[in-house]
Amino acid sequence: MSIRRLVLASNNAGKLAELQAMFAPLGLELVPQGALGIPEAPEPHRTFIENALAKARHAARESGLPAVADDAGLCVEAFGGLPGVDTAYYATQFGYAKGDDNNVRALLEQMQAVDNRRAALVSTLVALRSPEDPEPLVAVGRAAGEITRAPVGENGFGFDPVMFIPEFGKTFAQLPVEVKNAHSHRGQAARQMVELMRRAWPI
């Protein structure tokens, strides 16, 4: 039986919009877990892949549908790869409320005296046909760049305004959406995942 619906183990509107566009070639309906009344899964692990797998299993178990989960974050070289899996809550470590704008503010403050600005946005996508699927599909994307000294650009979300991509000479937030999606960490992972699904799943 071919797969037509896939539950996304996230309620992040930006992530949903990006992944819906990227999965469109498969003709799958991507349903956010919140639309099915599924709460967020715990994310106790220290690696992107473990958290993505936990989220996908949770969404598949609660929905009875195949599931895809993305765990992504910013890995700053000068911080030994942190904030990593704690990226979404980065600002809360410094007394700010959770949120994209505060994450950017906290990062720029913490990097004020740091000369090594190298960083990477990393996305790990995991897809499961069922909660007990022994063969999860795994795709990883990595977009390397440098953290700017101030936000630049109006597009995107998350750290896009401070993620400068040398090959374009611009931040992700300055790029048109289709260009960003083609080169972003999530775009790279989603393209790999689409190919993996085509080869391994009945679509």
TrEMBL record:
Cofactor(s) the protein needs: Mg(2+)
The protein's enzyme class: hydrolase
CC cofactor note: Binds 1 Mg(2+) ion per subunit.
Keyword Kinase attached: no
Residue runs in coiled coils: none
EC number: 3.6.1.66
Pfam families reported for this sequence: Ham1p_like (PF01725)
Residues at the active site: D71
Keyword Magnesium belongs to the record: yes
Binding of substrate, residues: S10, N11, N12, A13, G14, K15, A72, F157, G158, F159, D160, K180, H185, R186
Reactions that this protein is recorded to catalyse: dITP + H2O = dIMP + diphosphate + H(+); ITP + H2O = IMP + diphosphate + H(+); XTP + H2O = XMP + diphosphate + H(+)
Binding sites annotated in the UniProt record for Mg(2+): D71
Keywords of the record: Hydrolase, Magnesium, Metal-binding, Nucleotide metabolism, Nucleotide-binding
Subunit structure: Homodimer.
Family assignment from sequence similarity: Belongs to the HAM1 NTPase family.
Identification of the protein by name: dITP/XTP pyrophosphatase
Taxonomic source organism: Ramlibacter aquaticus
